[in-house]
Amino acid sequence: MIDQRAKDLSLLLILLTGWEEERRNGAPGEKIFRAWKGYSYEIMDSLQKDKLIYQPMKAKSLILTEDGRKRAEELRGRLMRA
Questions:
Q1: Taking the model in full, what pTM does it have?
Q2: Which of 3, 7, 19, 31 has the greatest number of CB atoms lying within 10 Å of its CB?
């Protein structure tokens, strides 16, 4: 079983280390948020199952979904208070 804290911290790191770019096959101006894959496969698979990220096949980066971005922003606000 995957520790929820590890999933939350991985999701937060995805947000903090990722970037926004224009979707290649989308409408002009449509943006997506990407990050490099570099986390535990087990955690990444669990985050994808929860629909917080999408891992395109054969890609070295992942896509943070809207739900994933909302959750990561919530975590950032809660965990990174100054």
A1: 0.88
A2: 7
Residues 6+ apart with CB under 8 A from 30: 22, 23
The residue extents of the domains of the chain are 4-60+72-79
CA distance 11 to 47: 8
Q: In angstroms, rounded to a whole number, what is the distance separating the alpha carbons of residues 37 and 61?
A: 5
3-19 pLDDT, tens digit each: 999 999 999 999 999 99
What is the C-alpha to C-alpha distance for residues 30 and 53, in angstroms, rounded to an integer? 17
pLDDT reported for residue 82: 52
